[in-house]
From TrEMBL:
Full protein name: GOLI4 protein
Coiled coil among keywords: yes
Classification via InterPro entries: GOLIM4
One of the record's GO cellular component terms: Golgi membrane
Coiled coil spans: 5-60, 90-142
Alphabetic keyword roster: Coiled coil
Length: 172
């Protein structure tokens, strides 16, 4: 009976030791589980924060995309307006060019007719020139006397000019 009692007491001690060991393991696992829960909680908060930032970034990107699309459409519209203006200006200039070409042809024809008229006039003038040359020769004699008098007067004026020039230089 003693042997059985000791044997049972030994089993109880072993069971208490084992229970103590399991209790310590449970406390260690409970502490680890608490750490895991805290870590999970932090990760969930971080994930929520990241989701919020992602949502905000996505909204910002959509706003940016919309603004960029509007700017592109506006620039496209402006370009189309400029193209239309340039196109109409090109048509106007093309028509003006055609008009100028017509005017050039008219002016060339007019120039040719004026050239012919100029030749005729030149011949007439040459005849008149010959006549005037003869008249001039008769007047040259009269004018030579006048030229001589004017030369004398010119010499006097040059002397007076040189004197005034000299006086100006000395005054300066």
């Amino acid at each position: 009976g003693v042997f059985l009692y000791q044997h049972l007491q030994q089993k109880v001690r072993n069971a208490e030791t084992l229970a103590q060991k399991y209790k310590q393991q449970q406390e260690a696992l409970s502490a680890q589980l608490q750490v895991v829960y805290e870590h999970r909680s932090r990760l969930e908060r971080s994930l929520q924060k990241e989701r919020g930032e992602h949502k905000k970034t996505k909204e910002d990107f959509l706003v940016y995309k919309l603004e960029a699309q509007e700017a592109l459409n506006k620039e496209k519209q402006d370009s189309m307006n400029r193209y239309g203006a340039l196109s109409s200006q090109h048509k106007i200039l093309k028509n003006q060019h055609e008009d100028v070409k017509k005017q050039l042809l008219d002016l060339q024809l007019q120039h040719n007719s004026l050239k012919l008229e100029h030749r005729k006039t030149l011949e007439t003038h040459n005849q008149k020139y010959t006549q005037l040359q003869q008249e001039k020769d008769s007047e040259v004699t009269n004018l030579q006397d006048t030229v001589f008098k004017l030369r004398e007067e010119s010499k006097l004026l040059r002397k007076a000019h040189q004197e005034v020039h000299s006086q100006l230089l000395s005054a300066q």
